[in-house]
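Lecture notes, structural biology module. Today: joint structure prediction for complexes of two components.
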Amino acid sequence: MAIVDMKKMTLIGLHDDRHRLLARLMEIGVVDIVDAEIDEELSGIFSKEINKDDLIELDGKLHTLETAISVLKPYDDRKKPIFKVRKDMNHHDYMGIVLKRHDVLAIARNINSVKEGFDNTKSAINRDANSILTLNSWSALSIPMETETTRNTLVTNGMVPSAADIDGIRAKIEEEELACEFVVTGSDSDQSYLTVYTHTDDEQSAMSILKRNGFAVMSFSGYTGSVDENIGKLRNDIEDKKTKTHGIEDNLRDLSQNLDDLEVAFDYYTIRREISVTEGEVASGKRIFFLEGWIPAPVEESLVKEMTEKWTVDISVREPAEDEEIPVLVDNGFIGDSVQDITAMYSLPSYKSVDPNPVMAPFFLLFFGLMLSDAGYGLIMAAACGAIYFFMKLEDTMKRFMKMMMLCGLATMFWGALFGSWFGNLIPVLAGTPNLDLAIWFSPVSNPEYMLMWSLFFGVIHIYVGLGLKAANLLKQKKYLAIIFDVVSWYVFFTGAVFLVMPFVPGINMDLAETLSPYGSYLLMAGGAMLLLTQGRKSKNIFGKIIGGLAALYDLIQFMSDILSYSRLLALGLATSVIASIVNEMGSMGGFSFTGIIVFVLVFVLGHSINFALNALGAYVHSSRLQYIEFFNKFFEGGGKEFRPFRRNTKYIRIKD
Amino acid sequence: MFDGNFFAILGAALAFFLAGAGSAKGVSIAGEAASGVVAEDSDKFVSVMILEALPSTQGIYGFVIAFMIMAKMTELGTAIDASSGLVLLIAGLPIGIVGLFSGIYQGRVGAASIGIIAKRSSDLVKGIILTLMVELFAIFALLISILMIGRV
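The predicted structure, tokenised, for the full assembly:
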């Protein structure tokens, strides 16, 4: 299937139908609506009606609902699936909640105000706790806190830094013969707490001495009675408030049963907002509106049929023009689809190129398998991911990922069986016959050089297929001559190079290598000559042409290093099986006894889990890398714009008709 | 004392301890950056964890080589002659030394790539590719070590 053909749809409908028609298009979800550009000559008739007030109101409601949902999140005791999936909901139930949406909004507002009360109480508790800390320093104050004056004296409380010379202050006061006395009520590592009694006449001079020593006045306004009484009061207060917060929490827990409704309302307003935004993107006139959008060619017929039968519209569909940026939608078979997210992480293919996914998929899966290459690991992976894929409800992306992992597991099993690796050398270790070879093909651990040769050979195939895809791209773009210049000549050139170096590859069949090697130089020269003559053809002057040709020859080095890069297939595969063997041998050290078996099981489970996790991650990233760097480099034309149909992008529910 | 066994064991030790040290350093460099990102946004944990784990492969390769050298010793029997022992010692060096440096440098690229994630988590793949570039040399070193062991 590959990249889906796109068509441009133009639809003119009645202004009165606009909202309902867009809602219906959203439900169908196949049109990528283009933000309208209104020509100058039409600007008198059409305009974009962006309803700001409506959007602001909807945003406000969405915010209220979102806040309420996040407030209730800690009290949510609904059963949650392992993989996040939107809940299916039939249209009737959905409409039921939509009809009472104003009640739901009122509940949300209530929840938010309850939460506000909760926060206020919490911060009041904090304030009280801080006050208690302050009062604790004054616990030795023997007079009522509100006492500030008697008939002739003033009472002042305050602090001096603990570095202040208290005896010095006292001496100074005595020296000046002031009617002033103070007691140190308490002290800690930072400051000392003083209560100062002065005669009203001497207040100013006494205070100036104190202030010179860093005295800061502490006011107890609002407090009455002794310090201990106040601390007790605050403690009681905190207890009361704590009881109150528990009450509020119980209340919120009760309110959390509204979560389902809140989520549905949130999605309802999301949909409303989306329609409202789109209404502002289409060109609207007095009586009619006008919209343009991309649709996949396969849905054209059914869409046009529904639109013309049920609505008063004028609809036309045309082929895309040369210079338009056409959105890309890929659609492949069971295997091809599984890796489309790997490609999309790199870039979407350009609309004018071929879709690499179906070709890439087998390579990705087989390379993953080669690097994990253990039938036991593959079996577990395929079984676990297969069970999730077939029996659990999943969102599309997760479903594709699980499918890919299941297929990767099967590929891993395939190679593991060929190489005779079942949880490393578990079976030979258990059977007590260390030299037992289970390999259907051969064991890379005992013959790494042979495996290296095959790894490089797989690399050559991969890169040749990549060049083939370049030819397919050129074919799609009808550049036939370029296929000869840019693909065939590389094939000849690279094949020559491969033949030439064959005798130096370890583990190779020498007869074959020596037969082919002499032809290598001819092919290399022929291919080189072709490249030299053609690769500079885009340059205007003769020097550019020569340099372009010479620079292309330098790509041979690139090609060689690309091929060597496939040696990672051997390296990562070996790492898995060697570590698996070490785990088995460590586990079997305890011998065949009760403790020995327990030790074996523990070491087996732990060791193989770690080995699997590390190497599966390695296989995944390295297999991706081989596609991105070595494979895509040869042909890939990225930069495609994703096909984003106008549809219900809900967060919590999927509405079924 | 300086017989074949000694050299071979020394080779296995060097292969692992240099490459393992490189990985430890590399993972720790990337890990510090990763913790910083997670502190800001814990949703990025999986992405940064993948990048943090990448420099751990050098240690695995060192482990593999150390094991293969010891397996070779078992195969050769009790008394290994000095020249075979020396070859095994030298065979341990490529993955040991390249593993040490590539582990550290890969960790640095990993930390920088974690910086990409901090800004745009959609660019995880680009970060992984950049970090994997360093890996190739450790893979070559592993291969050379394996091929050298095969020569004994």
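Point to remember: The interface with chain B takes residues 345-346, 448-449, 452, 506, 564-565, 567-568, 570-571, 574-575, 578-579, 581-582, 614, 617-618, 621-622, 624-625, 628-629 of chain A (CB under 8 Å).
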